[in-house]
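Entry for the shared binder. Reason: the reviewer on the internal report wants the predicted structure included alongside the sequence.
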Amino acid sequence: MTGSVLPTPVSGSPGPPPDRPAAHRTGNVIPLGRWAGVSVSAHWSVLATLVLFADLLATSALPSALHGQSSTAYWVIGVVTAVAFLATLLAHELAHAVVARHYRLQVKRVTLWMLGGITELEGEPPSPRADAAIAVAGPAASVAIGAVCLGLAWWVGSGDLFGTALGWLGAMSLLLGAFNLLPGAPLDGGRVLRALLWWHSHDRARAADRAARVGKGLGILLIALGLLEFLGGAVTGLWLAFIGWFIVTSANGERYAARIGSLRGLSAGDVMAAAPVVAHGWWTVEQFFSSVETSEFVQPGLPVVDFGGQVTGAVTLSELKRAPDKDSRIRDLGGTRRPPLLVRPDDPVEIVVMRLRLHDGLAVVVDEARHPIGLISQTELERASRLADERAARAAPTPTP
């Protein structure tokens, strides 16, 4: 189970970060009112979690720990305990929200979903200390709840079904708190890592990118471990692999969100590689290689143009080299048939970043007549982001810890 804090753009920004998980979207949620002044809702997938844990408790965990009870008793206590566990997830997220408001951040909403919860904030923490405090609040609440539940379980005694359920709830809360402290975004431990890197480097955007990279590596590791467990006969390995997949997806989204933040205010014309070499669609592949020197070719791709010089497609150099028939027309190659992403020089870069993910990471910048005047790929975006981060680091005062 995961819990995370998601900063969202302030009013006037172009939109939410890319790759936002389904639980963050406004549709398919059940409103649960306001708790501690925060709007709370639950995604429909929470019902799957409720059924899963209730079944696990009623058919396995409780009967194994305490024999001789009726099936009805196991199911009643199992359902109540599963609901209580969802309440601990809510407490975890509300702890994030309370500390965020202490640092004068607006809390947009808290959403529970299948793998935990999401706390959405308006804006960014003002300092590394605030960032770390907000992140630690959730796991601290889970650990505190776990300790209280285990204490109550000890007081009630292991021979009681209620005490057994409390023990399970306490152990799960401790596990939730510990798991969320793993050092990789979007987990809370990734926020702590980001805060430490921010404090050390004075560069929040770069710190966020590095924490997301660590999170992606962590997610890949969890996927591998989950698949190994599944191949070894443990069906629960699929659950671990699913959590790993979620972490990888969210980490990728956070990297893009960090990049958007560093590039905000720039246009496509500011970051493009200008004056690209074009591929004439009526040329054969052989004609292209005999007419264009490619030994030092560094373009990420080539706009394919028609007789009027207008863009009709895009192709990469590797696609041209792999063409099975060198007498094929460039316009007939498979890679040129996908519609290219065309952007104007004055289009905001953050919009280009989000749209690029659907077009193989290549955009063609065109003028009013659809003539290509530049290209944008991940290379150009990374270069512009790095330069923007360096300028911001030189201009910004040292943040307080």
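Summary line for the report: Residues 68 and 209 are 54 Å apart (CA to CA).
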